[in-house]
Write a structure and sequence with these properties.
Length: 76
């Protein structure tokens, strides 16, 4: 599954959808990531955050990865 993410709301939706598809609660995810439940909740709601490091930990723990490319280029 590849989804283009253009803003924090779309990223939050992806994280929430992935968490739910893995039958994880926000509490369970926050525990394995070492972050607070409030942080997970705010990320899923699309709140802008400068804590990119924590967001990358959440993404990794959900089995996702981030790839950056110039617009219009395909990532292989």
């Amino acid at each position: 599954m590849m989804r283009k993410i253009y803003d924090t709301k779309e990223l939050g939706n992806l994280i929430r959808d992935t968490r739910k598809s893995q039958n994880l609660t926000q509490t369970q995810l926050s525990s394995v990531c070492g972050v607070g439940v409030r942080f997970i909740s705010e990320v899923e709601k699309g709140k802008a955050s400068s804590q990119i490091g924590k967001i990358l930990i959440v993404i990794k723990m959900l089995g996702l990865e981030v790839a950056v490319a110039k617009r219009g280029e395909l990532i292989s």
